[in-house]
Design a protein that fits this description.
The protein contains 3 helices and no strands. With 110 residues, the protein is mainly alpha-helical. The radius of gyration is 35 Å and the shape is flat. This is NADH dehydrogenase [ubiquinone] 1 beta subcomplex subunit 11, mitochondrial.
């Protein structure tokens, strides 16, 4: 077998393999996408957060048992972080150098 025929064989096999490959589909979801007709599970209602039915007009939504403690904890942590991070001591090296230089200047003046 000559070198030329070997190269032709390799090239033809490579070309056939490339022709057989499928085009890659992004997402790999149901045909037509997630929001297509018939793609949703039975009983799923689109457009409702956590599948809650909205209350009748003029009435407010009743909170669940976990919501008040969660909002209270979230607010408390937010206030603690804002106050704590704004009042933390400055421990940068440049701040230390400024204080140290001021001390040495004051000592040199005396």
């Amino acid at each position: 077998m000559s070198m030329q025929s070997a190269l032709r064989t390799i090239a033809s096999r490579t070309l056939r393999g490339a022709q057989r490959t499928q085009t890659r589909k992004m997402g790999a979801g149901p045909p037509g996408g997630f929001w297509a007709e018939g793609a949703q599970p039975e009983g799923h209602v689109n457009g409702r957060l956590f599948n809650e039915t909205p209350p009748p007009p003029g009435q407010s939504r009743k909170w669940e048992s976990w919501e008040a403690p969660w909002y209270l904890a979230f607010g408390t942590v937010t206030v603690m972080l804002v106050l704590g991070l704004n009042n933390k001591p400055n421990t940068s090296s440049t701040e230390w150098a400024k204080v140290e230089a001021q001390k040495r200047l004051d000592a040199a003046e005396k």
